[in-house]
Design a protein that fits this description.
The chain has 270 residues and is α/β, with parallel strands linked by helices. The protein contains 7 helices and 10 strands. The strands form 3 sheets. Strands 4-5-7-6 form a 4-stranded mixed β-sheet, with helices on one face. The longest helix has 38 residues. The radius of gyration is 22 Å and the shape is globular.
Length: 270
């Protein structure tokens, strides 16, 4: 039988997760006998080996980022070459605080128009040149990585609220007719850095999104936004919930499949 690591909680069902290194993690209710968990894992042995094979294949496809000149990073599904520019002097650094612009997001309906900027940030996305340029005092890989993460976070703090604003009225209109109590309001949107969760929605209307989704195509990001918005009407994964998701995004199953097959590629090496 496959070895596994067990986590017990107040959950009601059993689940199996295969991690990047092939570790099998099982989540189980506190009351469930160990013998039944063993039987469950044994029954799923073929599935576990299949998923381990898939994980190994994904690991082989993973880009090993160096965070050096010429490295490649994705933004909304498009790949950009990393350009590193080092500050030459403290005087230049002070000018950068005022002059540097960061093109952060262009609406498909308004291609070519910048909808905002964060001047103090030393990172620029040059879409036409397919370049993501960072300017720092040093080309140290850890500093470049930290700057890139800050840049992605800034973009996420703008893009996710914009996409929520696009889809909330659609979800609210459909939910008002389908859900018993309609749809709740969005209380707060938070951007996080997580390894295993793309988004979440609380009973208080707090939406959380993973900034790493900005490396995925826009339709994948939109699927996660719609998914969490639909939880404002159904705080579960019932057939009614999935019906609401499908009414907004008829091809949502393809997006779910994309995340299953490619989500691991959006993670940077730790």
């Amino acid at each position: 039988m496959n070895k596994y690591q067990l986590t017990r909680s107040s959950r009601k069902s059993l689940s199996i997760c295969i991690e990047r290194d092939g570790t099998v993690r099982v989540k189980a209710p506190t009351w469930l006998p160990k013998s039944q968990i063993d039987q469950f894992v044994q029954k799923k042995s073929a599935w576990i080996e299949q998923k381990r094979t898939e994980v190994r294949a994904l690991e082989q496809r993973r880009i090993s980022h160096t965070f050096q000149e010429g490295d490649r990073f994705a933004f909304l599904g498009q790949e950009y070459r990393l350009q590193i520019r080092q500050l030459l002097s403290q005087k230049e650094d002070s000018r950068m605080e005022i002059a540097l612009e960061s093109v952060i997001w262009e609406s498909p309906a308004q291609e070519g128009s910048a909808l905002g900027s964060f001047a103090p940030e030393r990172a620029i996305l040059r879409k036409n040149e397919k370049i993501l340029s960072v300017t720092l005092p040093s080309a140290n890989a850890s500093e470049v990585k930290a700057q890139l993460e800050r840049w992605y976070l800034l973009q996420a703090k703008k893009i996710f609220p914009e996409r929520v604003a696009v889809f909330y009225p659609m979800v609210a209109k459909l939910a008002s007719a389908a859900a018993p109590n309609g749809i709740g309001a969005v209380n707060r949107i938070t951007i996080r850095s997580q390894k295993t969760r793309w988004g979440s929605c609380s009973s208080k209307g707090n939406l959380n999104f993973n900034w790493r989704l900005l490396m995925a195509p826009l339709d994948i990001l939109d699927y996660v936004v719609v998914h969490e918005l639909c939880h404002l009407a159904y705080l579960n994964h019932s057939p009614q919930f999935w019906q609401l998701v499908g009414d907004i995004l008829p091809d949502y199953s393809q997006c779910r499949r994309w995340l299953r097959e490619n989500g691991m590629l959006l993670q940077w090496e730790e």
